[in-house]
Amino acid sequence: MNYLVVIVQVKCSLYFCKRNQIELNMNQSIRSWLLLVILTYTAFIFNTTEFIPIGLLTDIAADFHISEAHAGLLISAYAWFVAIMSLPLMLAIGKYDFRKILLIIVGCFVLSHLLSAFASNFAILLVSRLGVACSHTVFWSVISPLAVHIAPEGKRETALGMIVTGTSLAMIAGLPLGRIIGLHLGWRASFGSIAIAALLAFTLLVWLFPAVPNKQKTSIKSLPVLLNCTVVRNIYIFTFLLVTAHYTGYSYIEPFLAQIAGMTDGMTTFSLTVFGIAGIAGSVLFSTLFDKHRKVFYIIIPAGIMSVLFLMLPASGNQYTVMAHCVCWGLIVTLFNLVMQSEIIRYVPQYATIAIAIFSSTFNVGIGCGALLGGAVMTSISLSSIGYVGGSIAVFALLFALKWLIPYMNYSLKN
Question: What does pTM read for this prediction?
Answer without folding.
Answer: 0.77
